[in-house]
Structures are given as C-alpha cells and as structure tokens.
Amino acid sequence: MTAREQYERFDHLARLGWDLHSLGIPISLAVPVTGPPVLEMRAGNGTTIHITVIRRYCGWVFTWRPWWARLWRRDKWVIAHAANAAAIIAAEVNA
Length: 95
Hints:
The protein contains two helices and five strands; from the N terminus they run H-E-E-E-E-E-H. By secondary structure, it is of the alpha+beta class. It has one domain (3-85).
C-alpha cells in the first residue's frame, strides 16, 4: 500500500470517528505500530466493534465484519464517501 493510500485510509477513519462522536457514540482511533488503523466503536449492548476502511472496486468502504469472516457480507459495509455513513453504521451495529 502506498503512502497516499495509507493517508486516505487514516483520513476516512478520522472523519467517520468525528461523525460518530457527533452522534454521541463512544469511539477511539487505534493506530497500531504494525497493521492498519482501526476505529473502535462501543455498541449499545457494550461490545466493541472494530471498523476498518478498505479499497474495493467501488472505492473506499467501511467494514465492521468480524476479522474471522471470510465472506463479503452485504450488510456489513458502507461506501466511505456516503454522507450518512456514520448514521448507517450506528443503526446497523445497534440493531
């Protein structure tokens, strides 16, 4: 992954984090020494949801599927440029 792609990934997560924070959802942005940054969101039932951003054929998407899920699940992603991405994620995670 190029430096520009790493910057874009961080930028998308920071923007989503701010939008989720504006909705009153507890979040934190984890930037590990190795590996991509991850947005940690506290769901309504108290579980921690890990949100990542990845590049797909349609552009950048946020995904919150479990790390062990091998299938691309339709209900576990949203396009990163969507104006209401934070609202969609909050609704899906807290459903």
